[in-house]
Amino acid sequence: AQVLESGGGSVQAGGSLTLSCIASGLTRDFDDVAMAWVRQAPGKGLEWVSGINDGGSRTYYADSVRGRFTVSRDMEKNTLFLQMNTLKPNDTAMYYCAVQPKYAPCSRSNVEYWGRGTQVTVSS
Fold first, then answer.
1. What band does 97 get if pLDDT is binned at 50, 70 and 90?
2. How far is CA 30 from the centre of its chain?
3. What is the pLDDT of residue 89?
4. Contact (Cβ atoms closer than 8 angstroms) between residue 6 and residue 19
5. Is the separation of the CB atoms in 94 and 105 below 8 Å?
6. How many CA atoms lie within 13 A of 92 on its CB side?
7. Which one in 30, 34, 81, 93 has a CA-CA gap of 20 to 30 Å to 59?
8. CA–CA separation, 53 vs 32, rounded Å?
9. Which residues, 6+ apart, have CB-to-CB distance to 4 below 8 Å?
């Protein structure tokens, strides 16, 4: 399986970025797996940022990003998105895409595949 993130970069506070994650070669169809975005800031542990169930009808957001970030998925393109608005310096982190066999926000043990991450840097 291959899980590939893209879209990271450097922006000023208040700016926006859209992350993408393409999943291929999964043991299940893309519309049969849950997906998530997890980030790790320098010197800190993993933070579950957002999640979405297989059908796209259920979503999860960390309190730190709720109202600013929006997760979505395109079934035809096997792609997960994270629209990030009003970015803050505290959003600076490596953002990882995760594939889960079932919708289980904040459950690292339930992650089947991880991407290698895309870096987001927000300057003040």
1. very high
2. 15
3. 97
4. yes
5. no
6. 12
7. 93
8. 9
9. 21, 22, 23, 97, 115, 116
For residue 66, the 8-state DSSP code is T
> What residues does 6 pair with on adjacent strands?
20
Q: Which residues, 6+ apart, have CB-to-CB distance to 2 below 8 Å?
A: 22, 23, 24, 25
Residues 6+ apart with CB under 8 A from 121: 9, 10, 11, 92
Token couple for 90: 């505290």
Closest CA to 114 of 89, 80, 90: 80
The residue type at 123: S
Provide the pLDDT for residue 23: 97
CA distance 44 to 117: 15
Supply 45's token pair. 């542990």
